[in-house]
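=== RUN LOG ===
request id: a7f3
mode: sequence -> structure
chains: 1
length: 133
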Amino acid sequence: MEEKLRNAAIRVTMMPRDTNAHGTIFGGVILSYIDIAGGIEAVRHTGHDRFVTVAMKEVVFHEPVFVGDLVSFYARTIKVGNTSITVKVIVEAERFGSQGQIVRVTEAEVVYVAINQHREKVVIGKSQSKPQS
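=== RESULT ===
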């Protein structure tokens, strides 16, 4: 069994504005937070300050998320290349009103590419600007 990641990149309490017509949190809201959590991990792990998302591998939702749930996004680096980094994000929800009941919502692998201030792909850690001509 996979070890649990205990240092949450972010934690968010889900609010009514994030719900769909069925009363559960939009999957897209969760995807957005996955992207943010992975980006935080990429910066923390490499010290590089600019990344763009290029891929998010299949995301399957195993449990719904409800208004009031405290959702934790745990992230860890699984691969670093020259210009890209792959981060695994695990999403868990602590049920509102059921202290201690935690469910695994989903997980994803997200691939980011390092860029510079001109939005050009660069080697991770190299963010200096191009020389002026």
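=== NOTES ===
The chain has a mean pLDDT of 90.
The domain at 8-114 is CATH 3.10.129.10 (Thiol Ester Dehydrase; Chain A).
=== END ===
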